[in-house]
């Protein structure tokens, strides 16, 4: 039985929200993020009891600790989880792959869009549908709450949202992308989905134009009231929750191969959602020695751990690992709350401090924390940054040394950091490095690293049959020939009819 309620990271008053509210709202009204102020603890004998469970049974046990039975019954939760992971191609859902005695890759890309975001978004899509259907059950059609999810993508993340929401009742999804600026595979993945609740808008402009339009739509009160605009962005609590399962699952898989392994996780990080799930797992009691943040050249997190200053750079750098190209890591606020609360021992005071810090971030572009906070962060975390040239050399070396294993450029960021740690460790650790995308999704970087190697062929060695077949599919491309919010709004209105 759980007794979890949720609060906002910026609230300095008593604050309590249900799981349903947290999932459907996404962001708290004060601009903070929803968190469980108490992190549940694992049963003492969890290794014995859980180590042989399937991925879905394990997911059930973990999620149950965070969701009241009065909100979602055991049978309903089981069914939501089963449906969410039946779309994965691998029987283990998230298998581990041995690279060498010190390093395993946790492959998170066996879902429908070949990227780790599927693990969370397949579940979130089903949750949205579940909550809306329940709310709407006895209402006449015109009174039903229908959610319109709107988002922008630079190519690599939009498809996971689309595949999470396709075919769901009472939900429509609109994804904007910049015309001609995403790869043909990415465009085909998104626009070949035939479900009538899915709409992709190819906007003549840049990714920033698309994001601006989405922001304007979110702040349009009247439009919101009429169409109940929602988001599935990386701060949604349900995503963090769903991602906790694979930390446990990979730990148990590793124990079967190395029963006395001391484990460290390395996570290619952008918005800090993936690795934050590891923090919850560790706080619950998963015996992981450290969680290591691997950033690309957009390195706000690495700089923070080294200096104590959380400072936004002037510009985001376009790197070979685009899904990690961020200025600030939105989920990091959640970790900061726990670090501060554990120090001041007061939920309300923690909210007050966080609220001030994020005000400073907005107005001055940075804030600084005390040495004690950094000392407590580095008990659980370590970090390093990786440059584009190192991404390329890591893909090349891994292919040559480890039986032609092909890394995607995001995964390569983690592997580089893992290798550097292994080389300097004086004590023996086993690293589980998270593999966040299939290499076929990032052909340019992969080919840059491998195309001069004799015998290598992208089509034969990397591209899965299912993605090859995309090129023959019927695409539905809706062109918006002006990057203008009014044009997009009227298109949404028209398509919803
Ligand atoms: C989103 C993403 C990441 C970064 O994950 P965060 O949760 O934002 O830290 C890394 N790799 C890939 C391929 C991604 O799509």
Task: Describe the largest sheet.
Answer: 6 strands, mixed
Approximate strand percentage: 5-15%
CATH architecture of the domain at 96-112 and 238-450: 3-Layer(aba) Sandwich
- CATH-derived topology of the domain at 96-112 and 238-450: Rossmann fold
Helix tally? Answer: 22
List the strand order in the largest sheet.
Answer: 3-4-14-9-10-13
- Shape field: globular
Low-confidence stretches: none
The percent range for helix content is 40-55%
Class by helix and strand content?
alpha/beta
User: Based on DSSP secondary structure assignment, what is the total number of beta strands?
Assistant: 15
Describe the model.
- This protein has 497 residues and is of the alpha/beta class.
- Among the domains are: 96-112 and 238-450, Rossmann fold (3-Layer(aba) Sandwich), CATH 3.40.50.1100; 146-227 and 464-497, Rossmann fold (3-Layer(aba) Sandwich).
- The chain is built from 22 helices and 15 strands.
- The longest helix has 20 residues, at 117-136.
- The site of pyridoxal-5'-phosphate has 18 residues, from helix 12.
Please write out the topology:
Blueprint lengths: L5 E3 L10 H7 L8 E3 L9 H5 L4 H10 L9 H12 L10 E5 L2 E5 L9 H20 L10 E6 L5 H8 L5 E8 L5 H8 L6 E6 L3 H12 L2 H7 L1 E2 L6 H7 L1 H13 L5 E6 L4 H12 L3 E8 L4 H8 L1 E3 L20 H13 L2 H18 L1 E3 L2 H10 E5 L2 H14 L7 H16 L5 E6 L7 H8 L7 H5 L2 H4 L9 E3 L4 H12 L1
Parallel strand pairs: 4-14, 5-6, 5-8, 6-7, 7-15, 9-10, 9-14, 10-13
Antiparallel strand pairs: 1-2, 3-4, 11-12
The structure holds pyridoxal-5'-phosphate.
């Amino acid at each position: 039985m759980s007794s979890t309620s949720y609060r906002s990271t910026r609230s300095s008053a008593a604050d309590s929200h249900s799981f349903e509210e947290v999932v459907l709202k996404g962001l708290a009204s004060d601009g903070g993020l929803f968190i469980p102020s108490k992190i549940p603890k694992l049963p003492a004998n969890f290794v014995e009891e859980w180590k042989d469970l399937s991925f879905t049974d394990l997911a059930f046990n973990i999620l149950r600790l965070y969701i009241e039975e009065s909100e979602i019954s055991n049978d309903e939760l089981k069914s939501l989880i089963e449906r969410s992971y039946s779309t994965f191609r691998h029987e283990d859902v998230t298998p581990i792959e041995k690279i060498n005695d010190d390093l395993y890759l946790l492959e998170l890309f066996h879902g429908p869009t070949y990227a780790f975001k599927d693990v969370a978004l397949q579940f979130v899509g089903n949750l949205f549908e579940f909550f809306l259907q329940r709310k709407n059950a006895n209402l006449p059609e015109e009174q039903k709450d229908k959610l319109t999810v709107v988002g922008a993508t630079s190519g690599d993340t939009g498809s996971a949202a689309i595949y999470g929401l396709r075919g769901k009742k009472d939900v429509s999804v609109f994804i904007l992308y910049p015309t001609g600026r995403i790869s043909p595979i990415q465009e085909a993945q998104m626009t070949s989905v035939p479900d009538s609740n899915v709409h992709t808008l190819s906007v003549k402009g840049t990714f920033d134009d698309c994001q601006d339009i989405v922001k304007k739509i979110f702040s349009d009160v009247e439009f919101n009231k009429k169409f109940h605009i929602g988001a599935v962005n990386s701060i949604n609590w349900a995503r963090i929750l769903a991602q906790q399962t694979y930390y446990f699952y990979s730990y148990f898989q590793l124990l079967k191969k190395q029963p006395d392994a001391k484990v460290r996780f390395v996570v290619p990080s952008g918005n800090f959602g993936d690795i934050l799930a590891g923090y919850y797992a560790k706080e619950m009691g998963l015996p992981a020695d450290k969680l290591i943040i691997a950033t690309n050249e957009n390195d706000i997190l690495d700089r923070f751990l080294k200096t104590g200053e959380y400072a936004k750079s002037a510009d985001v750098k376009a790197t070979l690992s685009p899904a990690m190209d961020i200025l600030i890591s939105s989920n990091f606020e959640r970790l900061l709350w726990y670090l501060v609360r554990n120090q001041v021992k007061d939920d309300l005071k923690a909210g007050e401090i966080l609220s001030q810090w994020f005000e400073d971030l907005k107005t001055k572009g940075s804030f600084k924390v005390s040495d004690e906070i950094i000392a407590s962060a580095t008990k659980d975390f370590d970090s390093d940054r990786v440059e584009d040239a190192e991404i390329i050399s890591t893909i090349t070396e891994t292919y040559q040394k480890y039986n032609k294993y092909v890394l995607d450029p995001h995964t390569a960021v983690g592997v580089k950091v893992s290798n550097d740690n292994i080389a300097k460790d004086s004590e023996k650790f086993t690293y589980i490095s998270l593999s966040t995308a299939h290499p076929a999704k990032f052909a340019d970087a992969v080919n840059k690293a491998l195309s001069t190697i004799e015998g290598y062929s992208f089509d034969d060695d990397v591209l899965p049959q299912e993605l090859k077949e995309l090129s023959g599919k019927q695409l539905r491309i809706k062109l918006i020939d002006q990057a203008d919010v009014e044009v997009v709004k009227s298109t949404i209105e028209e398509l919803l009819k």
